[in-house]
């Protein structure tokens, strides 16, 4: 069984990210390749402070329980789908912070991206691709780009209210984009399994 985690990468109180991640999870369960187990990991549930470990994640020595809990969730799966908003032309701080807590847990796995924002979150995704390379993550070409104007319905709501998120109503084509993404993440996650098996954490550190 190949395990893929859908990671909700936004922690803001009034966020669109939970609706997007929930859709990604439920759709993924329907369109994922045979033999894939999909699970939802919500970053907001880990309450990670600004990185407070005394040593770099590359050492794999964790002083805090919140880090160990996060490490266990990330280490347990074979690949990832990161659901990310775009904040100020880039990756949201909480997601980058969470990524930086760990190192070996990410290695030799595959990752795909579901971005959302005014421009589909594409600039945040491009930054995440650069980060993925440093973490020895194989990022796949297929991605899902969701627009906060066309993929959300604001009918009957006051759009001047600062906490309004609208109702997530993604275009049908995005399910096909997600299916392609999951196919690629699955292929690469399985292809890298022998590499993971040959480089156990105890030998890497």
CATH structural architecture: 3-Layer(aba) Sandwich
CATH class, please? Alpha Beta
**N-to-C terminal Cα separation, in Å?**
27 Å
Low-confidence regions: none
Q: Mean pLDDT, as a whole number?
A: 95
- Can you count the helices? 7
Please summarize the sheet with the most strands: 5 strands, parallel
**Strand runs, count:** 7
| Percentage of residues assigned to helices | 25-40%
* CATH topology annotation: Rossmann fold
For the largest beta sheet, what order do the strands appear in spatially?
2-1-3-4-5
Tell me the overall shape.
globular
Strand and helix order: EHEHEHEHEEEHHH
The CATH superfamily is Flavodoxin domain
Task: Characterize the structure shown.
It is a single chain. With 205 residues, the protein is α/β, with parallel strands linked by helices. The chain has a single domain (2-204), classed as Flavodoxin domain (Rossmann fold), CATH 3.40.50.360. Helix content is 37%, strand content 22%. It is built from seven helices and seven strands; from the N terminus they run E-H-E-H-E-H-E-H-E-E-E-H-H-H. The protein has helices at 17-31, 65-75, 93-100, 122-134, 173-191, 193-198, 201-204; strands at 2-8, 36-42, 79-85, 109-117, 137-147, 152-153, 167-168. The chain has a five-stranded parallel β-sheet, with helices on both faces. It has a two-stranded antiparallel ribbon with strand order 6-7. Helix 1 (17-31) crosses helix 5 (173-191). The longest helix has 19 residues, at 173-191. It is globular.
């Amino acid at each position: 069984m190949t395990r893929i985690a859908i990671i909700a990468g936004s922690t803001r109180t009034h966020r669109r990210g939970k609706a997007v991640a929930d859709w990604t999870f439920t759709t993924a369960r329907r369109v994922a390749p045979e033999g894939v187990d999909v699970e939802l990991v919500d970053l907001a549930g880990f309450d990670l402070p600004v990185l407070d470990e005394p040593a770099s994640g590359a050492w794999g020595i964790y002083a805090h329980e919140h880090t160990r809990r996060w490490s266990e969730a990330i280490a347990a799966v074979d690949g990832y789908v990161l659901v990310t908003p775009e904040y100020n032309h880039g990756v949201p701080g909480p997601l980058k912070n969470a990524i930086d807590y760990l190192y070996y847990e990410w290695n030799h796995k595959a990752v795909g991206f579901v971005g959302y924002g005014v421009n589909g979150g594409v600039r945040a995704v491009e930054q995440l691709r650069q980060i993925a390379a440093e973490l020895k993550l194989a990022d796949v070409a297929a991605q899902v780009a969701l627009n906060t104007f066309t993929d959300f319905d604001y009918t009957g709501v006051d759009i001047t209210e600062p906490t309004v998120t609208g109702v997530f109503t993604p275009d049908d084509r995005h399910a096909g984009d997600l299916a392609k993404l999951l196919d690629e993440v699955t292929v690469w996650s399985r292809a890298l399994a022998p590499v993971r098996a040959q480089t156990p954490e105890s030998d890497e550190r």
